[in-house]
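Recall the central idea of this unit: under ordinary conditions, the amino acid sequence of a chain determines the structure it adopts. In this exercise we apply that idea directly, starting from the sequence alone.
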Amino acid sequence: MIYAVISDVHANASALRKVLADAWKEGATRIVCLGDVVGYGPEPAQAVTALRVEKAAVVAGNHDDAVSGRAASDGFNALAADAVSRHRAALRDDEREWLGALPYITNLEGGAVGVHGDLTAPMEFRYIETTDDAAANFAVCANTLIFVGHTHEPCLFITGKSGKTYKTKPQDFTVEQGKRYIVNVGTVGYPREENGVCRSSYVLYDSDRSEIRFRFLPFAVSSVMQRGRPPEAGARAEDAGRAGIDAESRRQGRIVAAAMCAIVAIFALTMLFVAGRGRRGGESPSLPTVKNVSPAKVEVGRVSGPVKEVYYIQGEKALYPNLWLAPKSDPAILTVTFLSQPGATIGEKAFPVKESKTMRMPVPPGTHRVEFTVVPEKKGGNLVIRRFTPSSRKLK
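Accordingly, the structure predicted from this sequence is:
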C-alpha cells in the first residue's frame, strides 16, 4: 500500500486538489488526512467533498471539532472563531455530521498510526514540538511510525535503542530496525514561508517497503481570495471534488486542470503567522499584532510592550515555557505566575532569558491557569520573540 498522508487542509481546496493530483501521479493508492479539513480558508465545502469523494481515511482536527460542534471554540482567536461561524453556515448538515463523526486516531499498514496532534491526549490536540513532547508520545505508543500534523512544520523525531529522542529536518528515509519515528507531514493549505518560498507538503508512505518520501509543492500566496471569506451564495461549487475528473483517472495520474490549481484561495497568511498557536481549541488571542516583521523568521516578532500567554491546567504536572528569542533581541525577563481558579496567586517565578527558556517546571497543586509574561530586561529594550509556545505534560 502506498499512502499519501496529508494534513491541515484548512479549507484550501485549490491546494488540496493540487496535492491529490500529485499523489496519484506519484503512485498513491490511499489518501490519509490527519485533520483540520476546515478552518480559516474560503472553501470548506469543496475540501470536505474532495476528501469524501476520494474515500480518504480522515481523523479529526481541532478546527473540525469546532466547526462540527463536537468541541467548543472558546480558545480560538477572533479570526479562527469567525471562520468557525462561516464554515458552519457554509456546510450542509450531513457535512457537519461527517466532521463530527471523524475518529481521533487511524491505523495504517506496516505498524503505523496517524493522529492530528499527539497520542498522549488525542482529543486535546496537543503539539509535538520538542524532543520531550516526542518522547512522551513514544512512551505511550509502541508503533514504529507515528504520523502527525497540527504544527504545520514538516519534520522528524527519531528514537532508537539508546532511548534518546532527537529532531531533524524532513528527509526521505527507510525505516531502520530498532528505530521509531514521528513524522510530521506539514500542511496542505496553510504552509509557512521558508526562504521566500511557500510550499504545501505531504508524505508518501510505502508500507511494503517501509519507505517515507516527503513531497513539497510550491504555490503563490499573492492570490488571496476574500481573506478567507467563502464564495457568494450560489457559488458553492459542490462538484469541486468531482469536476469531471473521477477518482480512477486521478489514480492514473491525470493532473487537475492548471486553472483550478492556480486559484490559491487562502486568506492573508501573514495575519495567521502572527496570530500565535493555541491549544485544544485553536490559536491564542493574547499575543500582540506584529507589523513589518517577516513571518518567515519570527512568529511573534518585535513588540513594544509585555507579551502574555495564558495556559489553562487540566491535570498537567509539568510545564515548559518554550520561549525563544531572535538573535537580534535584547535579553528578556520571563515571569511565570500560577493562579487558582478564583484567581489567587499560588506562586510566581521570574527567569532571565538571553536566548531561550525550555526548562521543565512543576505545577503547584491547585493551579487552574498559568500566566507567562515576557518583558525586556531593561526598560526600552528591543524585544524580538522568535517563538513562544508553552506546553505541558502529565507525568506518570
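Residues 222-302 have pLDDT under 50 and may be disordered.
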